[in-house]
Prior knowledge:
The relative contact order is 0.19. The chain has 6 helices and 13 strands. The strands form 5 sheets. The chain has a 3-stranded antiparallel sheet, covered by helices on one side. A 3-stranded antiparallel sheet has the order 6-8-7. It has a 3-stranded antiparallel sheet with strand order 11-12-13, with no helix packed on it. Mean pLDDT is 82; it is low at 179-205. It is an alpha+beta fold. The protein folds into 2 domains: 37-133, D-Amino Acid Oxidase, Chain A, domain 2 (2-Layer Sandwich); 156-204, no CATH class. A hairpin with a 2-residue loop joins strand 3 and strand 4 (66-67).
Amino acid sequence: MPLPVVTLTARGVDRVTVVDQGPLPLTGGSTSHAPGLVFQVSPSKTMTQFATYTVDKFSGLDLDGAWCFKKVGGLEVATTAERLADLRRRHGWLTAWGVESTLVDPDECVRLHALLDRDRVLGGLHTPTDGLAKAARAVVALARRAEARGARFLGSTRIVSWRQASSKPQATTSVRRCAWFRTRKSSSHTSPATSRRRDRTSWQT
Length: 205
């Protein structure tokens, strides 16, 4: 979510507002608990470029000194001749898409990952720039960078109306911020009571 905002603000667009009815910058979606394994090999050049962009972008981030991406390297191994042929094909994709990779023998596979059974491995494909991304850290770091350039993030905010001011991208937006609570009156009777805090905000974009 913050990545396009960071890109816009880096290009000089400082009037950017991000609105979400969930909390920001972490909404509780898949980013918050993604495993973060980044492998760049793909038969699709576009998908490889997306992964490479993630590696390059996240490698330059940290959150209060904590890393957002660690290049631990990726290793795919083959235990059958068919799989070994497939790894050669995958190596060809990476070479064509401009990503560094190496076909390695069983001894090198074991050196890279000591838990492998040398007698079962026929070979492997090593991509040294693959790694582990801490997605939640990266989101917070990107949001901070965007805010420093003038962007605003409005979490726990629901859009209730939108007015287009003209054919140009200028509009007035009204939003309502809500907090919901459920209370129990007594042990014998349950009544869902709702308390709501409303703040209406309008701004020009």
